[in-house]
Amino acid sequence: MHIRVIAYGLLTVAVQDPGGALDLDVPEGCDIQGVLEILCDRSPLFDPRSTPIAVMDGVQAPLSRTLQDGDTVHLYPILGGG
């Protein structure tokens, strides 16, 4: 199954693409959490302790959302400050 991940902010470094885009082949039935685990395995810069916000179709998606072939997952770093 083929999906696209688009990362923003510091996460662009973790996907090793200046534009933040990464095409991935993932197993059938993979969820967003599974994609995060794949990214952790691919890049030592991806910190699994700081779970990003996942967005699909313009709305925040739970990490348990099962992906379909052709899906695009946008990953935003957690922001903080005041």
Summarize the structure in words.
Helix content is 18%, strand content 27%. By secondary structure, the chain is an alpha+beta fold. It has a five-stranded mixed beta sheet with strand order 2-1-5-3-4. A hairpin with a 2-residue loop joins strand 3 (53-56) and strand 4.
Determine the mean pLDDT.
Answer: 89
Helix share of residues?
10-25%
Overall tally of structural domains: 1
> Tell me, what's the shape?
globular
| CATH domain class name | Alpha Beta
Distance between the termini: 41 Å
Number of strands: 5
Quick tags:
5 strands, 2 helices, 82 residues, globular, alpha+beta, Ubiquitin-like (UB roll)
How does the SSE layout of this entry go?
Blueprint: E1 2-7, H1 11-14, E2 21-25, H2 32-42, E3 53-56, E4 59-60, E5 72-76
Parallel strand pairs: 1-5
Antiparallel strand pairs: 1-2, 3-4, 3-5
Task: Offer a quick outline of the entry.
The protein is an alpha+beta fold and 82 residues long.
